[in-house]
Amino acid sequence: MKIKMKKASWEEILAKPAIPHLKPLAPPFLFRLLVRVLSIPDLWKVKFSYTKEGMERSGEGPYLILMNHSSFLDLKMASKVLFPMPYNIVSTTDTFVGKALLMRLVGCIPTQKFVTDVNLVMDMIRIIKKQKRSILMYPEAGYTFDGTATTLPRKLGGMCKRLGVPVLMLRSDEGGFLRDPLYNGLRLRRVKVSATLSCLFSREELKELSVEELDARIDEAFSFDHFAAQKEKGVAVTEKTRAAGLERVLYRCPHCEGDGVMKGEGEKLFCTACGKEYKLLTDGSLQATEGKTAFSHVPSWYAWERACVKKELEEGTYRLEVPVKVGVICDHRAMYMVGEGTLIHDRGGFTLKRENGEVVYTQDPYASYGLNADFFFYEIGDMISIGDKKRLYYCFPQVPVPVTRARLAAEEMYHMPKIL
Q1: Alpha-carbon torsion 37, 41, 42, 44, what sign?
Q2: Measured distance CA(269)–CA(307) in Å, rounded
């Protein structure tokens, strides 16, 4: 998948008004059917199946439907499980670029990842309470990097309570992630995929439970470990390229403790500094080819990297400064490539400078609980996105740096005491 791009100057982009708000449309049956039909080939390849649990508690719709975000297959799974139900889909702004009308006819509602969006909340209230349609939402916003849940927004339970309609959980199993993990560069694997649709909250429970209790149950519903489930269920991923790109997630060597020194090729993950080598086994576990295995579990390695970043933040040594190519989204016509710049991330948050050193955007570390970082974004490259309701800046590092480290730092920084 690619995105429409145009060249523009910084002056042109900075003079443009804020990203326009697009009113959500009711998806016509023909377009719902089209999405369903176009999804059939990919779902057939993974022998997709699903079950329903506790749906007798859900009552009549409309519903708020929450789904975990594991791979590009997620929306296709939803199209089968939910068909022919009319529903809108909370989607990221970049998916609208060059095809805004089509996306609206499919039922998508644009919003910026990890940016407070009052218009989105109002749109959701209008769709559910006045237009009586369901809404599909991916509260993680970003795809999972390590096969576990990404950070969820707090007080999501408050939104559920405000909408006041039954909340369903559509949860894909480990197969959705193993089929197409984000780090693996669009290399599809041969695995079966299944999902479960269940009632998370009935109308009565939404009234009875506190926001804190609702959030706790949502956290539990989004508690998963796809690598652990793979090993437990004996799911074999036999492709010889299964470790390719794994350094995007496991970027730090636990032996020499160098950052950005790991490299994934074929079935192997190795350190380019000290030479330590691991093999990603067919059951998803890691094993050192010689000597000590520091981590046999991908999420455990990832959690250690998080702890390392947190320590750097506490000691004041964390910093990212990298030359980047910058694409800007300020409307739904194109991503405007404005040239090169420098992205800086430290305890003070993000600073983006253009080629001449002029600061064009700063972002406070407490502006968002997460960070939109992605791998091989629209086949352009690894990316860090920052911005606000007016415009979004997509920064593509021009030297090898682990964008995962910035995502971990942003998440950890958000929970640290404010610097006076």
Answers
A1: positive
A2: 21
- CA torsion sign, 116 to 109 to 39 to 51? positive
Q: Are 341 and 326 in contact (CB under 8 A)?
A: yes
Q: Are strands 194-201 and 49-53 parallel, antiparallel or unpaired?
A: parallel
Query: What residue ranges define each of the domains in the chain, with the CATH number in brackets?
Result: 22-233 (3.40.1130), 246-314 (no CATH), 318-414 (2.30.29.30)
Q: What is the pTM of this model?
A: 0.93
pLDDT tens for each residue of 60-82:
989 999 999 888 899 999 999 99
Instruction: Kindly provide the b/e burial profile for residues 143-175, where b requires at least 16 CB atoms within 10 angstroms of the residue's own CB.
Output: bbbbbbbbbbbeebbebbbebebbbbbbbbbbb
Provide the token pair at 88: 């809108």
Please report the pLDDT score of residue 403 as a whole number.
Answer: 97
User: In this structure, is the dihedral angle defined by the CA atoms of residues 321, 326, 327 and 329, taken in order, positive or negative?
Assistant: positive
